[in-house]
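Two records follow; treat each independently.
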Amino acid sequence: MNYFKLLIFFLTISSVVEAQNCNCSDNFHSMVDRIKNNYPGYADKITALNRSGFQKKTDSLARIASHSNPYECLSLSREWLALFKDKHVNMWIDFDAISPDSIRQFFSKEEKTSWTQNKFKLYLKYEKKYLDPIEGVWSFGVYQVGVVRDRTKKNKEFLAFVLKADSSRWMPQQVKFRLLKKDNRYRTVFFRAGDHSINYPKLKYSSDTLDFDFFGKWVRGTLKPKEIVLGNSDLSPKFRIIDPETALFTFPSFESMAYINQVDSIVKQNKSILENTKHLIIDLRDNGGGSVYVYESLMPYIYTNPILTAGGMVLATPDNIKDGYSIKYPGVSDSIQKALDETLIELKKHEGELYDLYPVDTIKFESIAKNPERVSFLINKNTASAAELFLLQAKQSTKCKIFGTASAGMVDYLEVITSKLPCDFYTLVYPAGKSIYSINNPLDNTGIKPDVELSEKIENWVDYVKTYKEK
């Protein structure tokens, strides 16, 4: 980005929000201070053994920040946050706070190719006999890309460049992902997400699909307008009967406090069904967490014996109290709001402390439900945070068995805070809480292992679990 364009960018930003400070150095130092003073993992992870190296890296990035533009600032800030190896710690851009023109300028330096739509069409037409099977047009959501062999590389590398997208974050000719072909197999070199961050998802390829897991299943060809789905907007809990003996509860997310009442209603409305269903399947795949209150009403159906909770401490700093525990949630029940209010009062009493807000407790019910006789959980590598806390409780019941792959490993530090930096365009997130369970049983980046591991080759995990029999 040359000086003139950079000046235009800052002038545009200034016109959107007054009194902004988007100086990279100021924002970088603000982020460092915020994490150092408010993230309980800082004291655990920065020790006498690594402090010197950590400080050298911090100083090095700070020097780069002193002459970086806002886009470069995002990348180097994420590089610093990645040192903590905590998936709850992150930073992103609030695109709603920026005009489309500013967003386009923001990403104008991203890798581009000389391929154009017309040039690519001619290539596909006249080189048809010589094309690699993966070359062509691929689509997912608003994205349409052209995959073509990169002849500038010695190995068989393919680039996917944008043909059509949202016309703000992504523009034609920008490189969305790269693939490498070796031994007749394709693997991801890198994949850029919606915010242009670089990721390395595993690729599952078939003649008509490129499955990047969390980053979408791309299909060959173009999509008609009615076929374009802008992500999974409905993450609400769902319940259905599979057969006379089996029912399925699906939880795509625990993120919304509104889900608490929804689950309570589903459980009440289907009380008779749950009490007469022998097998309950609970699908937590891709559930990134949220509130532990969401699954509480299911606990009586899972319970067989007293269950120990994980317990948790909260770093009760003024910033954490203000940004994480002073928030009102409309629509929650009076009992939950009362609990939230009491939490706020307790934290204010213990300001400045790593306070034992959630002592290890024992969950007890007066009786054990006859049905369901068994409860099966489905999990994968994206099952995280509060969903993992649910698993830690469920594992203590003799009714429960976990199927799938290891979970995300995002349970050692919890209670995520969302905060702003001097430049409002940046959003910083980090946990304010620390699991007591994790002190002796760390799970970060390891995850909870399933009782029965399921291969990706099994197409329908629900059907598999439904008919599963102990060996």
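The next record belongs to a different protein.
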Amino acid sequence: MKIKTKIALRYSIVTAILMTVFAAIIYFVSAHDRETEFYDDLYKEGVSKANLYFEAKASPEIMHSIYKNNIEYIDEVEIAIYDTKFNLMYHDAKDIDIVKETPELINYIIQSKKNINFYLKQHQVVGFIFHHNNSQYVITAVAYDGYGYAKLHRLTINLIILTFICIILSFALGYFLARRALKPVSEISDRMKDITANNLHLRLLNYNEHDEFGELATSFNKALDIIESSFESQKMFVSNVSHELRTPLAALIGEIDYALLKERTIQDYIKTLQNSKYDASRLIKLVNGLLDLAKASYEESRISMTEIRIDEVVLDARKDVLKADPQYKIDIQLAPLTEDDTALIIEGNEYLLKTAFSNLMENNCKFSENNTSTVKISSEQNAICISFSDTGIGILPEDMENIFKPFYRGKNKEFITGNGIGLALVDKVIKIHKGQIGINSAIGVVTTFYIRFHTRDHHVISE
């Protein structure tokens, strides 16, 4: 069921409840007024006939004649007159006698000293004391309010019809108003259907940003911005990966084709295998870099975090780098000392941090003529600072803002081979650990990467 239909139905239900309550109140108030008014009419009719009997000295025959003539056209009131000793003085229809007065009833009316009203089935009865010539008489008047009940019945029918008409009108009005109010939603839905992977540049425009639908359109546009950016990043990523994979694969196939072209000497085959191994190593390194970049791109909730010591992770990274390239020189400097071991402990993922530190050490060594990296670890209040320095060619100012983008290689890329994954991976890992990373570079002199992690409070002891 659509929202506008639900709104119309709920609007109709509310209207039905209100109309039912309103109709019930009108009915019960009207029924009470009919009853009260008819009791008053019975009293007045009883007083009139009593006056006609006592004051006008009308004979019983005349009064019976009036009663019989009227009863043919309307529900005439039946009057009975008794004295206080239960002697019947006059009765409009003694043969019918609807009330069937008893001494107990007469005595109850006398003792009540006020009008009494009650029902006999559908007939209403009023009993009261009438005073004449210092004497008391008991008058009873009874009748069926046919006219009043007929009016009440017509009122009931009219209220039911009016209630149903109001419900139908409220549903139609509610549907119209809901459709009109939700029209922007339909427009947004139609426009969203037009947006596909091939035209993610389209946006929802011309909406008032200060109402709910404008806020919804703004949220959709922000989501589309993120999706478009993700698609562009994905296209660029696939394009770059394809390019990076194609180069070593093409070189590897070329070496194999060269070896198969004709018979070679053992030395030629050895050289071909060495070149093939080099290309395969480049492929493995690229694939490992892509896997590490993918791991660093996981949601933080999916990355396992434990307490680790930064200095131990740095030492492990140094060990891995030297194992892969023994000619590298990595100098680790730890200062100042702390009064307890907790100063160098953070919550982190050991594998990712070791991978990031290894990349920075390798970059230092690759871009330094003496293949050297200097790593300094220091602790401050609530923070751990690590710097990775080289004495290499440096980074140009125009490359600084793009240096952490995946597959980006600066103008110094001719100096050494690479694929542009390492620093992008480092940036993601540091951000996952809520750290900050910065660069300070002087062309031809030194390049230093600064990393800062927040940690628990500790006291620093100077050497």
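Discussion point: Residues 3-54 form the longest helix (52 residues). How would you locate this feature using only the token line?
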